[in-house]
Amino acid sequence: MSDDYNGYHISFFRPTTPRARANRTIVIWLASIWAVSIFGFQILLLVLEKPTPEPAYLTFQSVWGDVEDNSADKVELQEFGKSALSVLGKIAISDKEKATLENALSWSIYQLTPDSLRSVLVARVQGFENIKAEIVNIANPDYITARNALSKELSPVLVLVSNDVRRNILPLALRSSSMKVLTDDTKASLPAIMEKYLIHNQSVLTDTRFLGFPFHYFYTGVFLLILFVGLCWVYCVLVDRLDERLKTVE
Amino acid sequence: MKKIYFPILLVILPVISQAATAATQLDTGFKLGPAIILISMLVLFVMVGFLFRARDTADFYVAGNNISRVGSGMAIASNWMSAASFLGMAALMYGTGYHGLAYVVGWTGGYVLLLILMAGQIRKYGKYTAADFIGDRYYSQALRTVGAIIAILISISYCVGQFGGIGLMFSWILGVEYNVAVLIGGSVVLAYTLISGMLGVTKNMQIQYVIIIVSFLIPLFILTYKFDYFWILPQIGYGSLVSDIVAGIPLNETHQLVNSLGQDFAVVPSPEYAMPWDSASEQTFFQWIAIAFSLMIGTAGLPHVIQRFYVVPKSHDARWSVVWGLFFICILYWSAPAYAAFGKILSASPEVGKLAKDAIVVYTAQLGNLNPLIVGLLAAGGVSAAFSTVSGLLVAGASAFSHDIYVKVINPQATPSRQLLFARLATILMAIIVGVIALLKLALIGQLVAVAFSLAGCTIFPLFLLGIWWSGSNKQGAIAGLITGGLVSVIALTYFIAEKYGIALPAHDFISYWLGAWYFAWLGAPLALVVNIVVSNMTPETPIEIRKFLIERVHT
Q: Nearest Cα to B127, choosing from B298, B301, B392, B306?
């Protein structure tokens, strides 16, 4: 007995019982499939990915130089405001980043407004801010009327088409206190914020659609879980067969 | 009996509906409907527990070793589906997009490791608790005690996230502050555990699983139907929703699809939601891999998970119970990302304001304008998920104290009534500790639970892996490996806590990034394994009776 079992020593790499040997082979196969499927795919994603900017980032890049120099024309200011609005519509932004983007948007709207109407614009935005501060429920009719009116009035300034979701965000993102000046802080931090939110790691694996999903999302969020259940099922079947073959009795 | 129930229902149902529909804001006010649903669920669990209560100590610990593999699979799933799964996972995906899938993969992929490396062998080894195995395999009372202490620490760490979830849901149902809700919810869960702890735990878990999964799926079917996605299989149907988030959803000029606050079902293009390790999520490729890996090995090292394999008659059943358990778990894990995706769009308007991420599952149902009773069912399901896990963990922790420390080390002659007294005292003490930590709101539920996984991955996992698969691993190696894994854990957690309190420690950024609190096991576990192997090779070999047992009982 002692000789058969190598002095009762056992290790995964030197199994000393027939069952342990057969089990090891199964484990190695399944663990390899498991590891390659999970980590191999993520590494493939990393290898194939390319930083891909959203159209809003390309627009921002093309106008930022002139905006920074204060020499942007009307169209450039409109594109600048729209690109800031594109990021303001995203949920993940922090309060500090939000303040920077709101300054950029508010300033661009202010610049696009004729001199004679600028004080009216500030008063309108301030009026809406006051209503917003007073209400306890956003279903308040006065609030909804004021919000919709401001959106309708200012969307044409940025040339936002009727089904552009940014129309809804516009009145909520304007700040009367930060309209007149594009602050140095905003100038310094805005490019990094735009880069952070508007450039994404994309590849053929993320751009291909499968059952409606981006392929990589389906693979990781759905397929891998199916694979895990499948691997467990295969393992149990194989070990049951092994036990049958070796006539293992518990 | 029907004659009695019918008039009661006639009185109660309109009250529930009226009270529930009265709530117009997301957070405010006491919600009678959800409260009644929750209380009914808890009463049902206690009643089922009484019906299938344990007859003796063995029955209590391992349900008499006679649970079927499907039943055991449901119990595994119920034990597993905590507030972290029910509430936390959607929160992580809502906040960090694709990065959150690392948790989905980590918390399911670990079961493959657990099955192929351990499940059958653990059953064959035949011990009641993880500390029992460690003490026996490494022939050391000291290691048994340390193993029990680690099991208690892991239980506490795991419970903190659950108390956070209970606090959030009680806060939502009762309309009170989070801190007050934690105190109320914590007291209720403690009372529930003390009442149900000695009852039919495994049978109860099967029923809990059914209720939890039904309460999670029903709102999802309704949401996908309502917002015109493939509702027959929402776990696939939400794929188009993810693609819509990436491409953006323009305004519908007829404004037919709106959330409960009247805002359009529309969103600006948001590729950051689905793209891997996006800079907007502030998470990297390394962190994705480290989290998935740490959670997987942590799964294979969690004492209360390992303990489930003793409740089946044979190792064959232990293996199949993992297959069923994982399948039942996956039903929830395939579904949770859908809540995150719906939540992303329904809360896209700045008017919604900042929502507590950990409650996004319930907020999503609320913003989706589902019937308040359905939302209440969902919230009650979340609380039940947390309750079932907390109850199991407190019992496991109390067992570790009374069985592995008090009886096996301190007082082997203790009477059963004295054991029970100590188990109850340990339960109360653990609940107080967990409640206090939960009040600190250190992180998201999923992240807090991940800490327990890394802790298990650094400490218990190496002991089990080498203990089963290498007879050369001896007491000295185990102690050295445990010290190494423990040291990595202490460093990671010290930096995490220091950061929370604004204390700057040396090399803070470096350590916080490479040894994050929710993924430090990526380094700790391999280090503990290597140290265990090296020290074992340098010290006297494992006694012959242990090696013989491993060959003849575990691997033959």
A: B306
Establish how many alpha carbons lie within 13 A of residue B536's alpha carbon, considering only the half-sphere containing its beta carbon.
24
Helix B285-299 vs helix B101-114: crossing angle, to nearest 10: 40
- 8 Å CB contact between B144 and B409: yes
pLDDT of A22-36, one tens digit each?
Answer: 889 999 999 999 999
- Residue B75: name the closest of B434, B455, B335, B391 by CA: B391
Nearest residue on chain A to B274, alpha-carbon basis: A217
Q: Answer whether A96 touches B (CB < 8 Å).
A: no
Say if the Cβ atoms of A228 and B108 lie within 8 Å.
Answer: yes
Answer whether B236 sits within 8 Å of A229, measured CB to CB: no
Distance CA A181, CA A178 (A): 6
Amino acid B218 reads I
Instruction: For residue A84, give the amino acid letter.
Output: A
Residue B27: per-residue pLDDT: 60
The span from the CA of B458 to the CA of B301, in Å, is 9
User: Measured on CA atoms in the order B278, B282, B283, B284, is the torsion positive or negative?
Assistant: positive
Pull the structure tokens for residue A101. Answer: 């983007």
β-pair partners for A199: A53
Put simply, the answer to whether A239 touches B276 (Cβ < 8 Å) is no
Domain architecture of chain B: domains with CATH: 27-441 (1.20.1730.10)
Region of B194 (left: φ > 0; alpha: ψ -120 to 50; beta: rest) is: alpha
- Mind spelling out the 3-state secondary structure of A160-208? CCCCCCHHHHHHHHCCHHHCCCCCHHHHHHHHHHHHHHHEEEECHHHHC
- Take residue A189 and report the two structure tokens written for it: 């931090």
Q: Which helix (H) or strand (E) element contains residue B296?
A: helix B285-299
Residue ranges of A 210-229 with Cβ closer than 8 A to chain B: 210-214, 216-218, 220-222, 224-226, 228-229
Per-10-residue mean pLDDT of chain B, 556 residues long, equals: 43 39 53 84 76 58 59 83 88 93 95 88 79 90 90 89 88 86 87 68 75 93 93 95 94 76 89 94 95 94 77 76 92 95 91 84 92 90 86 81 82 82 86 89 84 94 93 95 96 92 90 94 97 95 89 80
Cβ of residue A59 closer than 8 Å to a chain B Cβ: no
> Could you count the other beta carbons within 10 Å of the beta carbon of residue B39?
12
Nearest to A90 among B272, B275, B293 (CB): B272
Q: Please check whether residue B246 is in contact with residue B345, taking contact to mean a CB–CB distance below 8 angstroms.
A: no
Whole-number Å distance between alpha carbons of B266 and A166: 10
Residue A210 host element (H or E): strand A209-210
Backbone angles phi, psi at B123, to 5 degrees: -60, -40
| Separation CA A214–CA B495 (nearest Å) | 37
CB pairs under 8 A between A and B: 230
Quote the strand ranges of B321-422, DSSP E. none
Show pLDDT as tens, one digit a residue, over chain A (250 residues): 444 556 678 888 888 788 888 889 999 999 999 999 999 999 999 999 999 999 999 999 999 999 998 899 999 999 999 999 999 988 778 889 999 999 999 999 999 999 889 999 999 999 999 998 888 778 788 888 999 999 999 999 999 988 899 999 999 999 999 999 999 999 999 999 999 999 999 999 999 999 999 999 999 999 999 999 999 999 999 999 998 888 777 6
Q: Which residues of A touch B556 (CB under 8 A)?
A: 17, 19-20, 248
Tokens for B432? 């107080």
Please give the structure tokens belonging to residue B123: 């059953």
Contact B382, B362 (CB under 8 A): yes
Chain B hits for A212, Cβ within 8 Å:
230, 236-237, 239-243
* Local structure of A146: helix, strand or coil: helix
Domain spans, chain A? 18-49+203-245, 51-201
